[in-house]
Amino acid sequence: MENLFWSIFNAKDENELRELVQNDPLLSDDNNWFPYGGSDPDDTGNFSTFENQQPDPVPALVEKITNCIDAILLRECCKKNIDPSSDNAPKSMLEAVENFYSIRDGNFSELLPAERRDLAQNIQVIATEDKANPTLLIYDDGEGQYPDNFPDTFLSLHKRNKVNVKFVQGKYNMGSTGAVGYCGEERYQLIASKKAPEFNGKNELGFTIVRRNPLTEARGEEVRHSWYEYFRLNQKTIPRFKCNSIDVGLWKREFKSGSLVKLYSYQLPRGTRADIERDLWRDLNQYLYSPALPILLWDKRKIDNKSPTTPMLGNRTRILLDDRKHKEQTISISFNQEGVGSADMEVTVFKHNVKQTEFIKEKALIFTLNGQVHGSRPRQFVSKDLGLGMLRDSLLINVDCTHLEPRFRQDIFMGNRCILREGRKLESLLQIIKDSIKECDTLRELNQFRKEQIIHDKSTDDELLRDLIQTMPLDNEFLNILNKRGDLDFFHKTKQPIKKKHPKEKEKKNYESKRFPSIFNLQLKSDSFGKKLKTIPLNGKAVLKFETDVEDEYFLRSYERGELKLKVLGIKNNGDSDGPGPTPLPSEVEEIFNVTKTGPSQNTIKVSLKPRENISVGDEIEISSKLTSPGNDLESIFYVRIIDPQKKTKTPDQKTESRPALPKPIKVFKEKQPDGGKDWDDLGWNGEDILKIYSEENRILSIAINMDSHALKKYVSKKRIKDKKGIIYTREKYFVNIYFNSLFLYSIFNALDTDLEEAITEGIEELLPKIFKPFSSFLLYMDLNQFISKSLQS
Q1: Contacts of 654 (CB under 8 A, 6+ apart)
Q2: Partner of 452 for a Cys bridge, out of 330, 380, 497, 593, CB 3.0 to 4.6 A?
Q3: pTM
Q4: Residue 484 in contact with residue 751, Cβ under 8 Å?
Q5: Is the pLDDT of residue 753 over 70?
Q6: Contact 298, 79 (CB under 8 A)
Q7: Are residues 407 and 486 in the same domain?
């Protein structure tokens, strides 16, 4: 059996393995293949499980890595003679890492780089062979499995193998099947494992191959689809051989125990497969925001590589420690809501010239559980939902959902850990997130600062564009498709910008931020009795501000992290002196208020309190707020009194303009121009970029256009335009066309946004006539020559 293992293992790709399977007497015998997860050879029901997992090969690969982390933690638990499902076992992944590796709070970011690399060697992802579709080897030094247990572990489906173990990620017993669907055309996967020595098992390495059954033409007529199966001997035995250690090409170690998974001809997406240590590393960092253990990546396809391995630590460690030079600020926000539970958010603003693919890609809002991303919202969430258009490509919001109420969490997360379940529960969570972030003054100020920096431009193209739009036949049908209400509020009238300082440059305090706080003052005046009293309408909320001198990352950092603690000291009901007196005290403020905490940020911590249903008008609550500090916590005591509900008043409708005000046009050049303006460095552009639209809450603020794009230069060269006047004319024609087409196409699709899914379902043939009915009149009257000529004459 050892020779058969090496024949399978050494196959470079699926083509070599297919040839081996067809020619080997054991592998070519159909009687030696058994349905994955089933006990009946005719059970072909696993197809839907395999084919309905992760919709992308990278999160599918992440499932394999999280299984490796689970296996290592289970092995460490065994080393300490603890039953993983007992009450003595760790209650979370972070607790397990802290207990098993003596790492404070389970946060390995505080380890030295050499220590992280040593730890990362326990989980390795190694790429070999083809550049386009590499074969990936995944290794873990975990608990491993006995060969006889393969059918109940690696090869099982929907069993409750780890459901009672609280410190592991795997619960559904199906997630790792998703990666098989991206293994070439034949779906070949090798699984090999040897039980760790702590379990006193036999010295045997078991192995098998998984594949999609190659349906014969006759069999294909009998069944609707294929199924997945695995190889075994004599219809029942997992192949095995005696093994002390073997060299399978790992980084600086031999395989002695644990598990190996080989994914043949794995179909990584474009932009991820060329360089494993850079491209796949970047994408894995985004899907494993904060892994419980580091992972080592090795691209063996490189010949002359001075640094052939790269530890993958997750975006959180990059943001807070390793690559913090790329960010402007990380803000801590937490909330505790009735019926939802509590969650901690980390809101990071990156510097404007950092490419969003580096940390964000298409995901601006991520929901994590045990550090793994389970769902996301695109960057559009920042501009449209939060109204922070200038931060659209620079804002990353991580919502740690570990402490959401279990039932609530189950209603929004799906088993594939990629797609969120749409519905009322998710809508309510998104609303809480929006409300919490919109209260953050720092983010609003950063957004405003960037808006003024971007829109402040000395360009004189406004008059040309304004003259052009004044002659356009913007009839009601066209205006209504641009904005369904027909009020043109998606356009933004640009005011003369006032140059302001960056939020960090504001002289708000007379002291600098420190590692530990020495100041914690509630910004609330005392009443005549010396009490700091805040009133809250029963249907409203109150925001309390605390002045402090501690650094912004006090609640986020891994070492010597602080905390803001709230505690109820007393409650008086309705001020009734004849009543029974104070009620029994709830232990936490969160039991009677929905609480949101923001900061520290710019020497301020904000606490928002919203009454829950178990509180009444007239109730007065005494609350202690403590900011932890080594040796001496800082305390501030205040009172909250509940008053009558506020009456909601309607805001009068505002009058709108009859014609739209134009978004600010910005010409962007490769190099800085004599009159200032924007250049490629300002926007992180190169010659491939064409334009960028800055919008905010469906309002178009500005359109930036690349005046040195490759497309424009190629056109000038191809048409052999050499005279100065011809070049200027071509550039102006390019500028105006890009500006107006991007403006109106953006506005049309924005107006159709809620109906877009239904429209596409009808077919593109139905969608295009709807767009071009109102758009055609604009195109007919779009005679640019007279306006460009006018511009040249002036």
Answers
A1: none
A2: 497
A3: 0.83
A4: yes
A5: no
A6: no
A7: no
Q: Which residue has the tokens 């498709």?
A: 481
Instruction: Compute the distance between CA of residue 485 and CA of residue 526 in angstroms, rounded to an integer.
Output: 48
Three-state secondary structure along 346-381? EEEEECCCCCHHHHCCCEEEEEEECCEEEEEEECHH
- Whether residue 24 is contained in a domain is answered as yes
pLDDT at 484: 44
Q: Sign of the C-alpha dihedral, residues 389, 455, 751, 736?
A: negative
Specify if 235 maps to a domain: yes
pLDDT tens digits, 28-72: 998 899 888 875 545 556 776 777 677 889 999 999 999 999 999
Contact at 8 Å (CB) between 387 and 697?
Answer: yes
By the 8 A CB rule, do 143 and 74 touch?
yes
Q: Catalogue the long-range contacts made by 574-583 (C-beta closer than 8 Å, 24 or more residues apart).
A: 574/616, 574/617, 574/618, 574/619, 575/618, 575/620, 576/618
For 737, the domain range is: 459-493+662-793
Q: CA–CA separation, 38 vs 792, rounded Å?
A: 77
- Asked whether residue 513 is domain-assigned, the answer is no
Quick: pLDDT tens for 5-18: 999 999 999 999 99
Rounded CA-CA distance 286/514 in Å is 31
Q: Which of 438-442, 588-592, 671-675 has the lowest mean pLDDT?
A: 671-675
- Give residues with Cβ within 8 angstroms of 545, minimum separation 6: 522, 523, 604, 605, 606
Across-strand partners of 642?
A: 536
Give Cβ neighbours of residue 698 (< 8 Å, ≥ 6 apart): 384, 489, 490, 750
Give the largest Cα separation in the chain, rounded.
Answer: 96
The tally of domains found in the chain comes to 4
Q: Are 585 and 570 in contact (CB under 8 A)?
A: yes
